[in-house]
Every structure is written in C-alpha cells, then in structure tokens.
Specification:
With about 160 residues, the chain is of the alpha/beta class. The protein is built from three helices and seven strands; from the N terminus they run βααββββαββ. The mean pLDDT is about 95.
C-alpha cells in the first residue's frame, strides 16, 4: 500500500482521537455493556444491543485510525525548503481573475480535507493546478462550469 500524505496537524488530530477512543470511549462502553448485562435477558435488552453497537463502531474507528497512521507519510511543511513553490502542506492565497474573489487554502491529505475550514485535498483539481507553481503564477483550473484562472498571491509554509 502506498504511503498517504498527512500533515503534522492532521496526524496529531488522529492521534488525539485515537487516545480518546482508547482511554475514554472504550472503557465507558465496556461499563455500559456490563451494566446492561446485569439487567438480565440479553435478547430483549435494548441497552445491551445499543452498547454493543457503540462498541463495534468505536473498535472500527480505532482500527481505521491505526491503519491511517501506519500508512501515513507525515510531512512537516515547516522543515522543507520549497524554494517558493506550492507544495503539500502549503497555505496558498489565490485570486479568481474574473470575479476578483480571494481564497486561502491549505493543501492537505484526503482525510484532512474540509473546504469549510479552507483545507483542500492534494488530489483536488485546484491543488493539482497549484502544486509546483510560485507567487504571481496564473493557473487554470477546469471546473464543471468552465475554466477558471487564478493568480497565486502568497504561499505560506506554516
């Protein structure tokens, strides 16, 4: 399996979620199952079945996070000499040359992407167009509505 790029912040968030699941959520669910078992007949015990379902979800998420971290290539953008180019992890301010609207995006791994928070996947059309470019470069992004030209205003490695 290929390594999946992940920012340091993204890796830390996954580690924190994993810790929470293992030290808080898992013990709480085990306790809920034990309490439900004390109530007798498990076939008709809704609390028991709900707790088992929560347990299944939590264990699945633990396995998912552990697999993501095991297959991650954690990239610290602050330690890379990008020579002024857009790279994975960089935060880029761009301007739509038609509308003059400005946008700021950080290029992150697929699992970290959240457009509302300004984080776009490295595989997205905008990110693919920006990678390797420099300030003042103009990139054309193919969108369903047609081509859009953006000028790169700034690049930060934070």
């Amino acid at each position: 399996m290929d390594k999946v790029p992940l920012t340091v912040v993204g890796a830390n968030k996954l580690r924190a979620e994993l810790e929470e699941l293992k030290t808080v959520t898992r013990p709480r669910i085990v306790e809920a199952i034990a309490t439900a078992r004390e109530h007798g007949d498990l076939k008709e015990n809704a609390e028991y079945h709900a707790a088992r379902e929560q347990q299944s979800f939590a264990e699945g998420r633990i396995n998912e996070i552990e697999a993501k971290l095991a297959n991650a290539q954690i990239i610290d953008v602050t330690s890379i000499d990008a020579k002024g180019k857009v790279i994975f992890g960089a935060t880029v301010e761009i301007e739509d040359l038609d509308s003059e609207k400005k946008f700021t995006y950080q290029i992150v791994g697929v699992d970290e992407a959240n457009i509302k928070e300004g984080r776009i996947s490295v595989g997205s059309p905008i990110a693919r167009a920006l990678i390797g470019k420099e300030v003042d470069d103009v990139v054309t992004v193919k969108t369903p509505a047609g081509d859009v030209d953006y000028e790169i205003l700034s690049i930060q490695y934070i």
